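Hi all, posting the design record for the shared folder.

TITLE: backbone redesign
STEP: 1 of 1
STRUCTURE INPUT:
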């Protein structure tokens, strides 16, 4: 970085919880942020699931640096013990925070490409001295270009959900059946959505927190007058074991544990039937237009009216193609972070704190943070992201001691020998057993302390 590059802003991609926290942390360090947000408001992705209640209480989803920025505006922190919905999170914290940031947030700014100025991916010469160049489209579709000293990509993974297909590709016929397939947790308070599922047979594919939420919501619908006859077929790629429903009462986030228990109740009470070891290969239609799921083992399930696919979210890496990223080949998470969160190695679904060192790439000055940093791994928590951006901002400010001093205790899921708890990609569902080999409290660069085994 040369003198003129140092004067450039740090561009943050995405005004979600972690992108906004990144901006707050940069301001705390006297570094100018510019947040580019594709949507017309802050927290566009969170608003898309505004009907879903978080399993984290308010005390765990407000960033400390953001709170300092908000305090002079008279902002009052919501009751720390209460659980916000996605809509509450956006309305009572994220949008007010974006409003304080003012012109440092540009809306309708969809990033389409990031590179080194004048250096495509293969050019070495003088590469690190060049600023980053970011291409984006503004609200009227005009292409724009801006330069930055560093780039923090907090664009999440909401827009790229996984498919039904067991191979990770859409099943045969999945695209053609799009009119009856949703990739989102249904909002059953919305009249049109309620009518879509009330009294119908629905297949839910997936075994993470989102699938649990969908199963429990559809069971609740079945108990109401207008929902009589609602029935769910729950499709899992693995079998059902003690850990399938999460940590339950052992989960250090009680509301997260309760999600699994509500899903278990839906099955136990007969509102849902579980189909295990089923990898969807094809989606066919019967003569009534209902969908028949066909497994790789040629099993054909009874026809359903609707399918809800909740197999996990994936990072969109397409606009980072000109950068030299170091990504794990399985998870698509930064190489040094991946072993800490790989569901094949950590069956507990517990997350581990980490900072800029684990989030660095061969291309210096670019970071994937937040939900996107986890690639295809589940169990990302907002408080993990807040710690990520605290460390990165400290590093960019030259405070290497603060950047390396990562101390954060994260709540364990209480699950061992099974998969993680968030929306689960196939690898997670099928991750082998094993135990909580890694600690829940970790001091990077220092001795690890284990806070409980299995
Ligand atoms: C249903 C659900 C429930 C969850 N519950 C919890 C919980 O209880 N506790 C917890 O700790 N975590 C929870 N999480 C996980 C996580 O904390 C959230 O997903 C959180 O929103 C992640 O924040 P983020 O800033 O990384 O990404 P996002 O919230 O996805 O924000 C990304 C932003 O980037 C924007 N964007 C995307 N692409 C571009 C682009 N090309 N250019 C410009 N902008 C772009 C989007 O519009 C969006 O505003 C939950 C997740 C989901 C999906």
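Okay, here is what came back for every position:
SEQUENCE:
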């Amino acid at each position: 970085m040369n003198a003129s590059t140092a004067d450039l802003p740090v561009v943050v991609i995405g005004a979600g919880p972690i992108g906004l926290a990144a901006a707050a942390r940069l301001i705390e360090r006297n570094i100018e942020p510019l947040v580019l947000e594709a949507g017309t408001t802050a927290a566009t992705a969170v608003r898309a699931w505004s009907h879903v209640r978080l399993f984290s209480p308010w005390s765990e989803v407000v960033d400390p640096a953001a709170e300092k920025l908000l305090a002079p505006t008279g902002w009052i922190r919501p009751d720390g013990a209460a659980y916000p919905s996605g809509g509450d999170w956006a309305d009572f914290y994220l949008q007010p925070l974006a409003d304080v940031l003012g012109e440092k947030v540009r809306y309708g700014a969809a990033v389409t490409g990031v590179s080194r100025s004048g250096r495509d991916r293969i050019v070495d010469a003088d590469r690190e001295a060049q600023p980053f160049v970011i291409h984006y489209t503004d609200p009227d579709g005009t292409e724009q270009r801006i330069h930055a000293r560093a780039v923090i990509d907090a664009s999440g993974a909401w827009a790229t959900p996984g498919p039904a297909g067991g191979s990770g590709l859409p099943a045969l016929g999945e695209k053609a059946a799009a009119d009856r397939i949703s990739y989102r947790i249904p909002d059953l308070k919305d009249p049109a959505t309620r009518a879509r599922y009330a009294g119908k047979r629905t297949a839910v594919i997936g075994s993470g927190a989102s699938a649990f939420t969908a199963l429990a919501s559809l069971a609740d619908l079945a108990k109401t007058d207008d929902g009589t006859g609602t029935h769910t077929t729950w499709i899992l790629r693995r079998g059902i074991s003690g850990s399938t429903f999460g940590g339950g009462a052992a989960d250090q986030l009680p509301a997260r544990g309760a999600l699994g228990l509500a899903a278990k109740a839906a099955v136990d009470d007969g509102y849902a039937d579980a189909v295990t070891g089923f990898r969807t290969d094809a989606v066919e239609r019967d003569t009534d237009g209902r969908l028949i799921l066909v497994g790789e083992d040629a099993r054909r399930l009874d026809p359903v009216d609707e399918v809800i696919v909740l197999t996990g979210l994936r990072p969109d890496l397409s606009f980072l193609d000109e950068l030299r990223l170091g990504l794990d080949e399985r998870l698509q998470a930064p190489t040094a972070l991946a072993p800490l969160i790989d569901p094949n190695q950590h069956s507990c679904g517990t997350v581990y704190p980490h900072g800029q060192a684990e989030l660095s790439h061969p291309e210096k000055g670019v970071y994937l943070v937040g939900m996107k940093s986890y690639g295809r791994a589940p169990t990302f928590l907002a408080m993990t992201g807040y710690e990520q951006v605290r460390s990165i901002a400290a590093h960019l400010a030259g405070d290497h001691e603060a950047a390396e001093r990562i101390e954060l205790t994260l709540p364990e899921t209480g699950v061992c020998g099974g998969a993680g708890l968030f929306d689960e990609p196939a690898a997670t569902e099928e991750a082998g057993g094993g135990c909580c080999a890694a600690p829940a409290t970790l001091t990077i660069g220092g001795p690890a302390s284990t806070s409980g085994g299995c």
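COMMENT: The first strand starts at residue 10 and ends at 13.
Let me know if anyone wants the other runs.
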